[in-house]
């Protein structure tokens, strides 16, 4: 996610394609940019435990990605988004983010599974 949004590129990334294979990066650090969209670096990493969790702040929202080990060499990736806003704005943002976040998590799953083989 530090390189691109990995959701629907035509919406989130100005039609630029997110990488389709894993890219070797240094471990993330607090204060670094959280993500990029359309070659613009956005947000900041506010908390990180390598191999466990990454939390970033972007546009007034906090997004936490947490890895939860499962049985038989599998891992579950959870995403939690927290934002202070009005109830009506929250409903609209939640619906939109559900669609975008689902695509992002499915893309991460695909990349992780390709890397295993």
Average predicted local confidence, pLDDT:
83
- The biggest beta sheet, please? 5 strands, antiparallel
Total strand segments: 5
Radius of gyration: 14 Å
Shape descriptor: globular
SS field, number of helical segments: 2
- End-to-end separation in angstroms reads 22 Å
Structural class: alpha+beta
**Percent of residues in β-strands:** 25-35%
Order of helices and strands: HEEEEEH
Descriptive terms for the model:
117 residues; alpha+beta; five-stranded antiparallel beta sheet; 2 helices; 29% helix; 33% strand; globular
Structural summary, described in words:
There is one protein chain. With 117 residues, the chain is of the alpha+beta class. The chain contains 2 helices and 5 strands; from the N terminus they run H-E-E-E-E-E-H. The protein has helices spanning 9-12, 87-116, and strands spanning 33-37, 40-49, 53-58, 61-69, 75-83. It has a 5-stranded antiparallel β-sheet, with helices on one face. The longest helix is centred in the last third of the chain and has 30 residues, at 87-116. It is globular. The two termini are 22 Å apart. The model has no long low-confidence stretch (mean pLDDT 83).
